Amino acid sequence: MSPLGIVAGGGSMPLRVAEAVRRTGRPVCVVLLDGFADPALWREVAFADRLALGQIGRLVGVLRAAGVQDVVMCGRVERPSLSALRFDAEGAKLVARLGPRAMFGGDDALLRRALELVRELGFNPMGAQEVLGALLVEEGQLGRHAPDEAAWVDIRRGAEVALALGRADVGQGCVVQQGLVLAVEAIEGTDAMLARAGGLMRAGGGGVLVKLVKPRQDRRIDLPVIGPDTVAAAAAAGLAGIALEARQNAAGTILLERDATIAAADAAGLFLQAIRPTTLLKETET
């Protein structure tokens, strides 16, 4: 069996993928993205190399030398400016092939074109959820707390806004309180958005974080993610709960450390509600 290639960004998800694959007996070839992945997390799992984001030619060489065919790219990576990247020779050639529409568009446009190049290079890109099926959740209430009627109004409003953001390839989430959009997610990420929303909360309570898959994005990379840190940030912002997208066609919002995340929400008094946004909005129309 050929090794599974793992291109690891920040956070715990790449490590969880590696550990799950190793338990099946399949070897892994892990490349850490320097400045994003924390080598200290990988003391128990050997990694093949640490590479800067622009060292694409070297990355391809490492994966090919290991006999990798299937590749998972996962973990947090902040999109840098082009001027900050130092591409190696092969990386410069590949970036030129991406084209200006991908390079200067949203994350989804860039990642979809990048996945096309991954396939052209002879690799098969896979989503982390294909390895860790439990990352996705079914529709319904998670944990002890449920959204009340006012929260459902905010969830529906948030779903409308998040889908519009996704169609424009801007972001994957927003915060809504009492029908008002307090913040939308762009390049700053969810935690920064929540911190900003916390300073805009109105008297009277409520407030919901909604995290959805972009309508046209490739399901194998960059799915929205929540975990214990998201719950802590939502609680610090004074929100009532979080709505995440339930599993649909092997996609949805990834729920990291499921038990710990639900326990944290329960302890903070927050609801976690998995929704199917298109179904929810159709019900609202009728």
SSE blueprint and pairings:
Elements: E1 4-8, H1 13-23, E2 28-33, E3 49-51, H2 56-65, E4 70-74, H3 89-98, H4 100-103, H5 107-120, E5 124-126, H6 128-131, E6 140-142, H7 149-167, E7 173-177, E8 180-184, H8 190-198, E9 208-211, E10 225-226, H9 228-237, E11 241-245, E12 254-255, H10 258-268, E13 271-275, H11 277-285
Parallel strand pairs: 1-2, 1-4, 2-3, 4-5, 9-11, 10-12, 11-13
Antiparallel strand pairs: 6-13, 7-8, 7-9
Helix pairs in contact: 7-11, 8-9, 9-10
Give the full name of the CATH homologous superfamily of the largest domain: LpxI C-terminal catalytic domain
Q: Can you count the helices?
A: 11
Q: Tell me the Rg in angstroms.
A: 19 Å
- Reading the helices and strands in chain order gives EHEEHEHHHEHEHEEHEEHEEHEH
For the sheet with most strands, the description reads: 6 strands, mixed
User: In which range does the helix fraction lie?
Assistant: 25-40%
The overall strand count is 13
Kindly report the oligomeric state of this protein.
single chain
Strand content: 15-25%
What is the class of the largest domain in the CATH system?
Alpha Beta
Structural class: alpha/beta
For the record, give the distance between the C-alpha atoms at the N and C termini, rounded to a whole number.
52 Å
